[in-house]
Amino acid sequence: MRRMTARPANAHQARLLRLLRDGGPNSRAQLGDQVDLSRSKLAVEVDRLLETELVVADGLAASRGGRRSHNIRLNPHLRFLGVDIGATSVDVAVTNAELEVLGHINQPMDVREGPVVVFEHVLSMAAKLRASGLAEGFDGAGIGVPGPVRFPEGIPVAPPIMPGWDGFPVREALSQDLGCPVMVDNDVNLMAMGEQHAGVARTVHDFLVVKIGTGIGCGIVVGGEVYRGTTGSAGDIGHIQAVPDGRPCACGNRGCLEAHFSGAALARDAMEAAEQRLSTELANRLESNGTLSAVDVAAAAAAGDATALDLIREGGNRTGQVIAGLVSFFNPGLVVIGGGVTGLGHTLLAAIRTQVYRQSLPLATGNLPIVLGELGPTAGVIGAARLISDHLFSPA
Amino acid sequence: MRRMTARPANAHQARLLRLLRDGGPNSRAQLGDQVDLSRSKLAVEVDRLLETELVVADGLAASRGGRRSHNIRLNPHLRFLGVDIGATSVDVAVTNAELEVLGHINQPMDVREGPVVVFEHVLSMAAKLRASGLAEGFDGAGIGVPGPVRFPEGIPVAPPIMPGWDGFPVREALSQDLGCPVMVDNDVNLMAMGEQHAGVARTVHDFLVVKIGTGIGCGIVVGGEVYRGTTGSAGDIGHIQAVPDGRPCACGNRGCLEAHFSGAALARDAMEAAEQRLSTELANRLESNGTLSAVDVAAAAAAGDATALDLIREGGNRTGQVIAGLVSFFNPGLVVIGGGVTGLGHTLLAAIRTQVYRQSLPLATGNLPIVLGELGPTAGVIGAARLISDHLFSPA
DNA sequence: CTTACTTTTTCCACTCACAGGACAAAGGAG
DNA sequence: CTCCTTTGTCCTGTGAGTGGAAAAAGTAAG
């Protein structure tokens, strides 16, 4: 199928497209209530959007007491691809223009195999989604990678956990392969955009998203916009010192938060506890699986295992301590906890909350919700779709 | 004298006013090079500004190879008042519209005496400046206070070191007394704006300013704009935990940065060292003055006193540790160190740099200058003038 | 079914901001 | 004095946008 190539011609059209994306199908009259344009001007812009086929007519709206209005919606054939590359797995999803997930595949994979191998898999996953009839092609794609990105060019820079990716032109390469516009960002930033679009952060303008997965990262949203820092490495909180003279970390320092609590650290601690027979629950799991991961700790904790609960509490305390510092500094309106370890659930959350509320001043914590992410594994792919749609639905 | 009451009528005029503020007198032709407007449009807007008397003609410019252009400048009679209220002293300055300091008074004072007493002094200082012929009246005033501020209303909220100020309508009261528009902000934010306007941060868009005075605070600039946080308390880094189970702090916690290093903590440490006879230099100063302050420590350090140097180094290490965390999180393009203790100079700076460069990752520190502020005690008042001029030179 | 009232949509005349060309004014270089 | 460059002014054309009038398409009550 021929893909859409049109872009909004001006700020008004971009505004309308975003309203339709975020609010779904809408009548012309309702749109008029939201944009502060004269009826005539609005009609002209809507007609032009209809000509470009970015939006289509969608029957008549219910009456609001008089003549019924005509409904408008984004072209239902538009498709975005959301790709979330994690350290140990990849998520690929298809969305429509309203960013609803139509299909979603997850596949284990080691990011250290390098961009060529990973993108082969990503492309075949995308092809599978297309083959299942969910899309005939993609109008844009958003890609999340687990490391800092030079955002304008879409190129990873000095990513610690994916050394082979340094300088690889992700944006350009995938744009070529997929035949559509592509934007690339840090996975944590995309998670933040996802929660902002469809999750817990819908109404907040300044907030933090702390993602605890294989590593630990933080998405920063200022005034509704993701803040990426001077070199694209903002939010890299995994290497903040949490324990003076603590454990050695891969980065060369000691006591980094990530060395003391993260999916990887938790798995290692659990193995150690199992081998030392501190927990029969964990020891049994180790025996039957041959190895342990954060998921096992979560399961053990759910079963009431004291050692597992202690590990989680301890990690939550460390994390909470770091977050308390960030809260004092940044004074956010919301803190979202997400990532693979969300399975650890409320034990973790309670430990974090305790630390933050104790250590930060009342003015900053007084009205500060600290909550788990609402979208789970789809936050990243929704954020990815949001990224590319923001790009496409902006004036050319 | 009749004060200016005019405001720019549109965004173009605001743009022109800011160009004239930041670039000084300019020819019409030069302005045209900077604003991307047709010559006719530019002429119209400049003529309107001349009518309002916000700008005035200023002779002929040098020829650029053809007909000489007419010079334009901001009305030289415009005067802004910059007020920087610290914990133990107040700075008041008069500037012209280009934000050049024409007169500057500093006076010791205890902020805990409350807003009424403090503002009596401020008003009399302003009157003194006016009486000396520097101003016939003020077209606007910026006020900095040492605590969080609800910015839109200009009201301090829950300020720890100035309890009597909570909820006092600073903006409204001073606007009444001075008879001109007033804006209020945290003193650290104003320091950041000052360094941005006329100091070391002129070309940087994302940076931090750490002010070490009686307490410790941090100004955050994102995309060229001061970030104030959800409740106006962003940058309150004095109560980040720097030492686990460290010294008790006035806030009720233990180990806060401010409890271990700040003007107040430094003075206390110095007294202790003097009483224990660890340093004859400090002991002598204590004997002759009856008390010690950060200034004495600076002097002792300059004289080579080992104890004083140790105190500074230790404090710098603690501060550097906290800043390292902020650098990882925020990835700024510049870190400015300022405030009363700037006198401690390069010993302090070196200690901070060492910690930051050691603890943060290379991607964040690779091209990160950490420098002392350039403006010293005038940073605050220049920032205050900048605050009110930004407000006045924006479309009504 | 008719009538009165609403809401939505289209049409049209009018205003306004702005661009850009023509031309005059003012200066420099030879 | 002549030719060229830059600056400032004037004027007209264009396109964006507004707001009123009227037509179109409903609802609600008699």
Beta-strand content estimate of chain A:
15-25%
Based on helices, strands and strand pairing, what is the structural class of chain A?
alpha/beta
What's the number of helices of chain A? 14
Query: What is the typical, i.e. mean, pLDDT of chain A?
Result: 93
The counted number of beta strands of chain A is 15
The assembly state of the depicted protein chains is: homodimer
H/E element sequence of chain A: HEHHEEEEEHEEEHEHEEEHHHHHEHHEH
Overall, the morphology of chain A is: globular
The side-by-side strand order for the widest beta sheet of chain A comes to: 6-5-4-7-10
CATH topology of the largest domain in chain A: Nucleotidyltransferase, domain 5
The assigned CATH architecture of the largest domain in chain A is 2-Layer Sandwich
Portion of residues in helices of chain A?
Answer: 40-55%
Kindly, what is the distance between the CA atoms of the first and last residues of chain A, rounded to a whole number of angstroms? 24 Å
Give the C-alpha Rg of chain A.
Answer: 23 Å
Number of domains of chain A: 3
**Most extensive interface:** A-B, 46 and 46 residues
CATH superfamily of the largest domain in chain A, by name, is ATPase, nucleotide binding domain
Instruction: Sketch the major β-sheet of chain A.
Output: 5 strands, mixed
Note poorly predicted spans of chain A. none
User: CATH top level of the largest domain in chain A?
Assistant: Alpha Beta
